[in-house]
Amino acid sequence: MSDDFEKLEGDVLTVEQLVEYLPDLKEVVLSKDAAMAKEPEKIPEPKALGPFARDPQDPSKYKIGPSYKDGISEAAALRKYRRGDVICQEGDFGSSAFYIVSGKVQISIRAPMAHVRTSSSGGLFAKMKSFLVRDDDGKARDSESKQFIPVDANIDLSRQKPIAELVAGDLFGEMTCRTFQPRSATVIAEDDCVMIEMLRSVLDMLTGTREGMSVVKPGGKTLKVQVFKGSPTFRKKMDEKYRARSLANHLRHVPILARLDDATMEQLRTEAELVSFGPGDVVVNEGDAADAFYLIRTGMVKVSSAMPGGELVRTYLSRGDYFGEIGLVQPEGKRTATVRSLDVVECVRIKATTFAPILESFPAIRAEVKKVADSRAAQQKTRSVPAGMNLGEYLDQGLYEAQNLLLINLEKCTRCDACVHACAEAHDGVTRLLRDGLRYDRYLVATACRSCHDPLCMTQCPVGSIRRKDSLEIIIEDWCIGCSRCAELCPYGNINMQPVEGGKSEKMAPPPKPAEGAAPAKKVEPPKKLKATTCDLCTDLSMPSCVYACPHDAAMRVTPANFFAGKSSAQDRQERSFLSRLFFSDGPDNRTTH
Amino acid sequence: MLINFSHRNWVFGTLVATFVAVAFYLMCFYPEWVPFPYRLPDWFGMNPRPSHRSVGNTPLGLLYGIISFVIFLFAILLALRRKYPLLRVGRVQYWLKAHIWLTILTLPLVFMHAAFRFGGLQSSVLMWVYLAVMLSGFYGLVLQNVMPSYMKERLPLETIFEQIPYLTQQLLAAATKMRDDIKAALAKPAPAPAPAPAPAPAGPVAEGAAAVAVAAPPAPVAPPKPEEPDPSSVTMIEALDTDVLPFLAAKAGEGRLAETRLAEEFFNLLKLRTKPEFHDRIAELESWCAERRSMDLQVRYQYRLHGWILFHAPMSFILVGLTAWHAIALLVFY
Question: Which of B2, B269, B19, B294 is nearest to B142 (CA)?
């Protein structure tokens, strides 16, 4: 554990000093001591648990070992900030969390809240054009439904004005500390502040972790033991803050709960259970009875389904997202997916039995959930991999990973780039596809989002701005802070970072001014004017723009498994030109890659 | 656009329309050729055997002319359609199919309108322009059917066309850097020679006599010979200066490296003339030249594939203008 420690700036604290600032931590240490004193025979061997050691004065007792104390000492530091100081900036990397001992801070997203845009969209002609090219088919962009931005703190930021305040007793940077995600927001001292900056060992001790440690018993049996349960008092405080500040927001975000009246919502808010899961824990299992609904408070989960070709990762969900709503109204129903936690995950759990009386008062909600359940079942059917498909052929190019490919038939394509121009036209002048990439058979697999089965790009977003909609497409919300983690994680280079022109930055509050007579505060760096962009399949339109605009019927969006598996040689021949069939072979040896 | 099975409806439609148009033409002007006894109503007002030079002034001829003109107008709208690819007025590929097959339909219509004659000066000019537009269109269509497959086969390293100038610059910069590195290594002074061993005492020393150290006069040190430059490095620099860099710097590939076979020979020879430690660099140069050749080829193909439009498009606009003038002139002056 101590190998992970990094040197922190500021005054490094001893255990005793740390406990002074974080009295709740004392509870953890004492409870361990008390537990060890009570039942020394149950304490595992020191080697097995590392941080614990037998008391040399009284071998029947166990004490916090020196290595453990050292670990804590090196893992927390006292930090003092003057008003206006920047504590951390969005997009920066880090490995620590902060606990505010005194003072208050402003937490905000300073990146402009904007689409990537390079061309002006004003003017009468532009308006007329926009009217002519609208083809939304009633499919509104569903991002509008999410009215808050989840950040790495016990509070959410409003979409309209992404700024909030944290006060003494608040904790932020938990996810960065646990999973090394980039910082999700910029934090600036509003007053002179005292903070404890801590590494994971202290954070785990404070908030608890279920991350197990393997202990080998004398019989050779391996047991996974829990290291910390955290400080109950501290956890209780955090839970209360969450219930007070964010839970209602999160619950309102769930479409089926949005219509509940305030009294019912309040009841739900107080009765909801707060539960936690360790890394790799199965929260719900596909096929099990659906008996509860979950709302994610912190951490990230992976939602997957078993498919004939292997596991299909449907999506990753993080703070503010929810799953299992079917369980609220259909207790007899089955889970349609497995949800597994990727790290320490805290969830709000609402049991079907809690929700049953509410449903009686709101029959419309039951109807809505039924609709959602039906649509999920339909999706489940369409996402089957056809039998007989040889996935091995796809391995080299990672095509097995794709759910939706942009293919360009190189025997039809005249390299006119109409697809690229149309893409740019549809996305404010910035194309999201490159007519370049690997070749498979006579197709060019264009550089455009493949809607991967396992979208790695979604696993590290600190502000949850990259997500997958109910259908396949991956979208990047306007509050992207431009940290470029998703672009780095995409194995196929299909996410691009684009400079942003303008934005609604006027909604940002100015950073607090430094105190009089104080040294000038460290300047807030201007926000990174970059946004991640990726192909959104033009789901606002009836057909992807690239496909729609291709004059030669060369561009197509396909489900690779169905497309390649279902293609007969007769269809192949029909597709090819009469002339090209005279000049070129059409046998399997025609398959080239580069 | 590939003419494949998906065009069957258009082929069928064009053939039917042509058949109908020809049948009406024959029924009007050559009823004796029609296998069944049918005449169009008299209100068509046509002359059963045109004595004048064109049938364009008859109702049927005029109708064919008007249809052709409307098709010409529609055909040039394709340019506008492509300019605004997202307009929800049908996919561009439907427009292109319509463009191709409707303009093919104008062939019988125009020829029947003109009674298979070129007519006077104005009509002749119009007809030649029309033929030029149609022939260039057919040429383009053939190219679009053949070239994509050809490019797919011949250009495995095809890249984004707009990126080619940038990529060629990168190749040139890399080769220049290689040349400079080799030159710099060549210019480095050779390590200083080890000091010469102290000269042995001159003459035998008498046994038992005390050895007297006599400082021997310093031997004349020959000035160090200028080091022979490494011949492999010199060969590499020469090859880069005379062949590789000019080839990579040229606007279009020139010299012997522009030919695959000659380039292979060149690099094989270069390998024979240089030390093995240069062979990796030579292989790298060879791949850069191959990449450059591929890009040059791609540029040629791209121009070939799209060059015809530079003729076809302006001529189409001229055709529409002339047709409009033709209609106005004939209506006003005749």
Answer: B2
CB-CB: which of A411, A415, A549 is closest to B85? Answer: A549
Which among A415, A543, A576 is the nearest to B302, CB-wise?
A415
Please answer yes or no on whether B148 and A413 come within 8 Å at the CB atom. Answer: yes
This model's pTM is above 0.80: no
Chain B nearest C-alpha distance from A565 (Å): 21
Q: E strands along A127-247, which residues? A: 148-150, 156-158, 163-166, 171-172, 186-189, 193-198, 209-216, 222-228
Q: Does B159 contact A417 at a Cβ distance shorter than 8 Å?
A: no
Maximum Cα–Cα distance across chain A: 94
d(CA A453, CA A444): 20
Residues 296-325 of A with CB under 8 A from B: none
- Checking ipTM against 0.85, whether it exceeds it is no
Q: Which residues of B touch A551 (CB under 8 A)?
A: 1, 82, 92-93, 95-96
- HEC secondary structure over chain B: CCCCHHHHHHHHHHHHHHHHHHHHHHHHHCHHHCCCCCCCCHHHCCCCCCCCCCCCCCHHHHHHHHHHHHHHHHHHHHHHHHHCCCCCCCCHHHHHHHHHHHHHHHHHHHHHHCCCCCCCHHHHHHHHHHHHHHHHHHHHHHHHHHHHHHHHHHCCCCCCHHHHHHHHHHHHHHHHHHHHHHHHHHHCCCCCCCCCCCCCCCCCCCCCCCCCCCCCCCCCCCCCCCCCCCHHHHHHHHHHHHHHHHHHHCCCCCCHHHCHHHHHHHHHHHHHHCCHHHHHHHHHHHHHHHHHHHHHHHHHHHHHHHHCHHHHHHHHHHHHHHHHHHHHHHHHHC
The answer, for A372 touching chain B at a CB cutoff of 8 Å, is no
Residues of A within 8 A of B150 (CB-CB) are 583-584
- B interface with A, Cβ–Cβ below 8 Å: 1-6, 82, 84-89, 91-93, 95-96, 142, 144-153, 156-157, 159-162, 302, 305-306
Q: Give pLDDT tens digits along chain A (594 positions).
A: 333 434 566 777 777 777 778 777 766 654 454 455 555 555 444 443 334 444 556 555 445 544 455 555 567 788 888 888 888 888 887 778 898 888 889 888 877 666 555 444 455 555 555 555 555 444 444 444 556 787 888 777 877 778 888 888 888 888 888 777 778 888 999 888 888 888 777 787 777 654 444 545 555 565 554 455 667 778 778 888 777 777 777 777 777 777 777 788 888 887 888 888 877 788 888 888 877 888 888 788 888 877 665 677 777 787 777 888 766 666 567 787 888 888 778 888 888 777 777 777 777 777 777 776 676 666 555 544 444 444 444 556 677 677 788 899 888 888 888 888 888 888 878 888 888 888 877 888 888 888 887 788 887 787 778 877 766 678 888 888 888 888 888 888 888 888 876 544 444 555 555 555 555 555 555 555 788 888 888 877 878 889 998 988 889 888 876 777 655 555 565 666 555 555 554 443 333 222
Residues 408-467 of A with CB under 8 A from B: 410-418, 421-422, 425-426, 434-436, 439, 442
Cβ pair B92:A551 closer than 8 A: yes
Residues of B in contact with A552 (CB under 8 A): 1-2, 93, 96, 144
Residues of chain B in contact with residue A577, where contact means CB-CB under 8 angstroms, are 2-4, 145-146, 149
* B contacts of A538 (beta carbons < 8 Å): none
Nearest to A577 among B3, B85, B156 (CB): B3
Question: Could you tell me if A119 lies within 8 Å of chain B, comparing CB atoms?
Answer: no
